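Model the whole thing, not chain by chain.
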Amino acid sequence: MRRELDFLRTEATHANLLLSALNAVLCVDGEDDPFDGVFSALMPVFACAHAIVLIESEDGAGPLECVASSHAGLAGSAWNPSPVSGKVLGGRIVTTLADASAGNGPPIAGFSLSGREPALYLPLAVRGRRGLMLLLRQADEPGFDRSHVSLAKKFSLLASHAFAAKRASQTEAETHRLKHLTEQLRASQEALTFRANHDQLTGLPNRAYIQELVGGLIARKKPGEKLALAFIDLDDFKRVNDLHGHAAGDALLKEVAIRIGSEIRESDVFGRISGDEFVIVLDSIGERADAAAIVDRIRQRLQRALQVEGAELRPSASIGIALFPTHGRDYDSLRRHADMAMYHAKTSVKGSVAFFNRELGRIAEHKLTLEQKLRQAVLRREFRCALQRKVDIHDHAAVGFEALVRWVDHRGVVRAPGYFLPLAGELGLLDDIAGLVVDDLIAHLPALDARFGGALRYSVNVSPAQAARTEFMIGLIRKLAGAGCPHRFIIELTEESVAAAGPFQTHILPLLRASGIGISIDDFGTGYSSLATLADLTVDELKIDRSLIASIHLRPRNQSILRAIESLGAALGICVVAEGIETVEEKDYLIRETRLAIGQGFLFHKPQLLGDLLSGAADDRASLLA
Amino acid sequence: MVSIRSFTAASETTPEALARLEANMNGQAGTASLVCAFYDCAHDDALIHEFITGHFSTVAILGGTSCNGAMSQNGLGGSGSIVLLAIDDPDGDYGTAAVRLEADAAASAEQALHAALANAGCAGELPELIWIYQAPGQEEAVIEGLRRVVGDRCPIIGGSSADNDVSGAWRQLGPDGALRDGLAVGVLFSSGGIGYAFQGGYEPGGESGIVTAVESGAASPGERAGRRILTIDGEPAADVYDRWIGGVLHEKRQAGGNVLADTTMYPLGMDVGKIEGISQYLLVHPDKILADGSLSTFASVAEGARLYNMRGERARLVERAGKVATAAAATLPGGASSLAGGLVVYCGGCMLAVGDEMPKVAQAVTRSFNGMPFAGCFTFGEQGSLLDRNVHGNLMISAVAFGR
């Protein structure tokens, strides 16, 4: 596709050059030599040093006569025919290899050829006779390539027609034909230019053309004039492709183009810059509110449901806006800042709109600082293990612990995972951090056993990205097994990780099973697990997500779901754990209405660093309800 | 006016396959300017060569063995198949030549190109396209030799002949018969114009590193390049690569061994430039981990090059063949509507990855070529023009479209 665009651009350029050269032929009056104009149009294009036109004698035998040349002294000279000139007179375009050129040519004062000049021959009918044009470069220059041959082919055909028309004194029919030919070429050039500059799927300006258009708009701006650049990114577009196929994705993109196009003004510029990313330039705007009003109308229009390939889609888009000149004075700055605002909108509320502002700039700066600190923290081993109890909800007796991560910086400030884990994930530091937490846990295991007994099991969280990395998982399994009691560890995975096909299924699950380490599905009820998947995997534990447990005593629908999960667990022999129990009412409901025995949550225990937990710190005791 | 016909037949024995081929041809042989032949390595080259020369007059011949047979507009030929593509172009010139690849493969290639040009009656002329079929192993040197003559002024497209089990039973077919360690070169001066495309069906997975040491083979002065990568970012190459692809080579990293099948979906890529701001990658297929932690590959890599971890998907490899064919047809001087037929080179590694969905690859190409005749071979290395530079890569797909 990209190469095709490249090809189209080349074609469009060729068409323009041909128009110039043809124009040179057609605009010459009366008996004037048309070649001066042709040579001056063609020689810079082909970057050649000499241009020579040779024609056959009237009887077609004997040497070729030079009828025009960029070197005045060659006119009238006789050139001996060669096998190559024979092919060219027959209609072939020929270009030579580095060591095979046009020969020496006739001896002319002030003009000599070494025989090594790169040559390009093209057939040309002149004065009603077969002829050729020979273009020569200097001997030490690179040869002509296939793009030159392609251009020469077009020129040869059209120029021959043009010469024929001139020779016939431009009879009405010839003139009409030539005019028609030129119009066709112009139309073809316009069509090529359009295709080179527009996205084929939607017909909208493409990335390069948008940049060109916006650059032009900005260049024409007078002091005080404003415009707005909106960066639109469809939400969950990949899911549409994955679930409904690429045809549905393409249909959605076309519909989005139509919807947005119907909401913008004639003066605005709208294009598609990549897969599901669009750019609108609102030109011009008075106030920021003007841009906000138009963009909000677009946002709402996009959210209307549509039927695609038999499925109902409810599209939405996150949109970021940057203003000229406040947020940038060139296309790249405006697009980058609008993109940043779009990202902010998407991460805040999908389907929303955000303007770029200095705060976003500051956030970017803060992110950079945090990145540096995180890298240092990994080197300083500042990540520690904190444990939260899993308990029997009837008597609050501990049945196990879940290992969690805390960042304790060099000043002793403790940071919760929400502060650093997303960025750590982006930076690829999660494996290192997980390693530090597990090391901390294993190192304290003897002390934990001494305090809580040796029967408790310890759960370790693994992210979907980590589960997909075989090397990480093998290292983790070895590390846990190396502690000497693999059956006392449980790896908590998300539904997504467990259901994913690939090395996890083929390599890791068998290793986990063989090692004796337990498998738990974390946050159950929020993903896409199928019953069939669960039955195949024979996991040891399901942890019901906190979103289902919150206010369970007040939410009949969640109560039904909970009963279904409980039955499922019982049928498959899987231990079911309720996560996120925070109130006495929730606990009482679970005891009264379900047969669930194990729970976890702030009501029973807030996570504690190992040192605090082992020393029996006051907050540990305070967190346990009697 | 260019006219193209394609004929397919399959059988375990060569005489039987050729008898079926003759029946399928239904007396349509006659003249051809160029005949391309691709076939399962189990077949007898001499009988195939004799068949072609016996059925087509004044013909240039080029082709060779293809992994598990070949494909055409009639579908996937499968095991034991033979596919012939006959191009008849009275106004064009075609010539082929074949040489044994000697120690100086570049010089052999240069010699073969000049011979092919002479056989076409076009000595000293720049062809529209150079079509090559060769034994795997010295592809970079072959390209270098051809580039000495034509530079990057015309595309060099082709494949490395393949057998069915990487045992070395591949052969190359030229005008005088078959070779085992040879190179067949064809020069094409088509009267209907030629379009072409060369792409990979993989996308970057995110990780990358600099090649810090290779076991150097023949390379340009001042450049160290070779097919054995010793280190990436100063670490043993196999360790780095295994980490990138999620540790699936963990066991083999300890003991060494063949990793061809394991790595088909995770090749390495080299950024060769951008088109429209989108990076283009030349793919390199790792085939073995060696005891010292180095990585053996099917294409040469230079020290200092940045290698990217690439990812493939089965569905994408299936549809990509059709897209490459479409792209080739779109670049015909007369546009896709002038298509007379084509040639497709599809990597044997991709073929292994696609498995039982291979018939869909043939169907995708057939749709893209609008049902016009084509021949497709399955190779152990692919050559083509990427960003106007002629190169050798792995796991790539090439397509050539011929205009009427």
